[in-house]
C-alpha cells in the first residue's frame, strides 16, 4: 500500500495516523473522566444512604427522581446522569468499600495510639435485638485524643 504512494503522501500518512490516534485517545480520556464522575456520584449517594440508615434500594428511587428533574432542568445532560449507577447492588458495594476504607484508616490511626480505653454501649431495638457498640478512645504521642466506633455486634434475645 505504501509503495504506491508518492513521497509527499508517504510523509503525510504518519501525520494522519498521529491525528487519528490523538482523537481516539481524547475520546477514551473523556469517557474515562465521565465514568470516574459517575462512579464518584454513586459513592456520594451510597454514603448519604448509609449515613441516614436508609434502605439500599433507595438509590434506584433517587435515580428515578434525579432523571425526572434532569429532564426538566437540563435535558442536554440526561445521558451523563443516566450513567450514574444507583442499583441496590452498586450502593451495597459502595457502602462496603467505604466501610473497609474507614476501617483501614482507623487501624492505621490505632497504630499511633500510646494509651487507649474501650467502652461499650448496649441497647435493645423494637425487635428485641440487642445492639452492642464498641468504642475506642485513644491518645497518640502528640496527645491528640480520638474516639471512634470500633465494632457493632447484634445478638437476638432469647
Q: Which features would summarize this protein structure in a list?
A:
158 residues; alpha+beta; 2 domains; three-stranded antiparallel sheet; 4 helices; 3 strands
Your description of this structure?
The chain is of the alpha+beta class and 158 residues long. It folds into 2 domains: 2-103; 112-158. It contains 4 helices and 3 strands; from the N terminus they run ααααβββ. The protein has helices at residues 7-51, 58-73, 78-82, 88-111; strands at 113-124, 129-140, 145-156. It has a 3-stranded antiparallel β-sheet with strand order 1-2-3. It is elongated, with a radius of gyration of 26 Å.
Shape: elongated
Quaternary organisation: single chain
Largest beta-sheet characterization: 3 strands, antiparallel
Radius of gyration: 26 Å
Q: Fraction of residues in helices?
A: 55-70%
Strand and helix order: HHHHEEE
Beta strand count: 3
Strand order of the largest sheet: 1-2-3
Number of helices: 4
What is the mean predicted local confidence, pLDDT?
82
Protein structure class = alpha+beta
Low-pLDDT stretches are none
List strands and helices in order, with pairings.
Blueprint: H1 7-51, H2 58-73, H3 78-82, H4 88-111, E1 113-124, E2 129-140, E3 145-156
Antiparallel strand pairs: 1-2, 2-3
Helix pairs in contact: 1-4
In summary, what is this structure?
With 158 residues, the chain is α+β, with helices and mostly antiparallel strands. It has helices spanning 7-51, 58-73, 78-82, 88-111; strands spanning 113-124, 129-140, 145-156.
Amino acid at each position: 500500500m505504501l509503495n504506491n504512494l508518492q513521497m509527499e503522501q508517504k510523509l503525510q500518512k504518519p501525520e494522519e495516523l498521529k491525528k487519528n490516534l490523538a482523537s481516539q485517545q481524547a475520546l477514551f480520556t473523556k469517557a474515562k473522566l465521565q465514568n470516574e464522575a459517575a462512579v464518584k456520584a454513586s459513592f456520594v449517594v451510597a454514603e448519604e444512604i448509609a449515613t441516614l440508615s436508609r434502605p439500599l434500594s433507595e438509590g434506584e428511587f433517587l435515580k428515578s427522581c434525579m432523571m425526572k428533574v434532569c429532564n426538566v432542568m437540563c435535558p442536554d445532560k440526561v445521558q451523563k446522569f443516566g450513567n450514574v449507577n444507583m442499583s441496590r447492588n452498586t450502593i451495597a458495594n459502595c457502602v462496603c468499600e467505604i466501610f473497609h476504607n474507614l476501617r483501614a484508616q482507623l487501624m492505621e490511626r490505632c497504630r499511633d495510639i500510646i494509651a487507649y480505653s474501650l467502652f461499650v454501649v448496649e441497647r435493645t431495638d423494637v425487635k428485641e435485638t440487642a445492639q452492642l457498640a464498641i468504642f475506642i478512645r485513644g491518645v497518640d504521642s502528640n496527645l491528640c485524643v480520638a474516639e471512634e466506633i470500633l465494632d457493632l455486634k447484634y445478638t437476638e434475645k432469647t
